[in-house]
Amino acid sequence: MQIGAAARRVAKSLVYQERPRAAVEFATAAARRLSSDLTRRGPLGLSTLGMLYLSAALAESSQEKTAARVRAAGGYVDEAGEAAARQGADLDEDYTQFGPTNVVLHRVDMLLRFEDGWSALDAATEAEPGALARMTRERQAGHRVAMARASLLTRRKDDAAKALLAADELAPEEVRSRPDAVNLVKDVVGVTADPGPGLRALARHCGLRA
Hints:
The chain is mainly alpha-helical. The protein has a domain at 1-100. The protein has twelve helices and no strands. The chain has helices spanning 2-16, 20-40, 43-60, 67-87, 100-113, 117-124, 129-133, 137-153, 157-170, 173-176, 179-191, 196-205. The protein is elongated and about 55 Å long.
């Protein structure tokens, strides 16, 4: 059990070190080696197994987009989905929030890393609203930022603005303190002819001119 959790931390560290290929190889090797043992350990083991595969998906989608990488990353999310299905519910074993909903949110994030906004919006419909509402405010806000990014990619400017404002209302630090989110606010303001008072105020809170 501890080996699996440690492997997940190593994979995450490799991504931060900008070594995504090594992270993919490490996470998938650990998941396959430990799969039987982790599955026997019930929800905690399944959460660890699923998060290893989600770590692999994150690392795979951190690289330049190719058809092979899109398939591989999707396959890792599918593996995590199988672990979530066996687990049967959204739990917070080892503070992972792992479960079917978390798998959906990771699939959305993975697709956005490959800049596939339409597929990300489609994948997001698999998240059950009640289950999403039970997640932490930070995770809910992060998902709304992801929806704003998908909306902008698909030229739905108004939806992007609404999602950003909803994220800021839930957890301001997830928008105002994250460079990627701040840049997204800047992009949405830049393509909106009349941002309106809410979006302008958010831009100012992010240190932007609007």
